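Annotated sample (chain length 213).
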Amino acid sequence: MDKKVSLAVIKRLPRYYRFLGDLLDDGITRISSKDLSDKMNVTASQIRQDLNNFGCFGQQGYGYNVELLFEEIKSILGLNKTYNLVILGAGKIGQALLNYVKFEKRGFNFIGIFDVDPNIIGTKIRGLEVKNIKDLEKFTKENNVDIAVLAVPKANAYDIYKNVVEYGIKGVWNFSNTELEKEDGVIVENVHLTDSLMTLAYKFNTSYDFIEE
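Output written by the structure step:
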């Protein structure tokens, strides 16, 4: 697709996907942009503008076919294939991510978890043995690893990231509480958990009206 789509639109797509999945679970087969707007707290015009970036999915007087739109967004997000992930850092965040089974339902399969702590190496988490991070290069050569999840302390993040890039892993999901810049051919998603909490604090204290957009 040659058309450029804003990051704000891309970040809303998973919400559409999640809400449409809930509608399917409830047996709802079609929905108008107005009704979807009410459920998602996003304006109907914003929904139409977002979806028009990728094609014409709705029909005037009918609305959206929920299953069709769900499958289209699934394809746009790349969720019609599977991804192999490794977790670097078997601490609380790493373990929590590995134990969240819904990732697998979305096609994200954890195939390895690594750490530097000798007290953790060799133990098992959800059936995966924690390996020494020194073995990551060998593991990457022997397995098709799409995404590395960085759940390591901030002080170690950059060095480990450089290793990940060197080993040819093309996607990085970064929970290390530091901004990592993307390298050539590598996609980085920096996750700052405190940002979400501070946004909540703002909403809790603000007197301004706001709508999710």
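Annotation: The chain has two domains: 7-76, 83-195.
Annotation: The chain has a mean pLDDT of 90.
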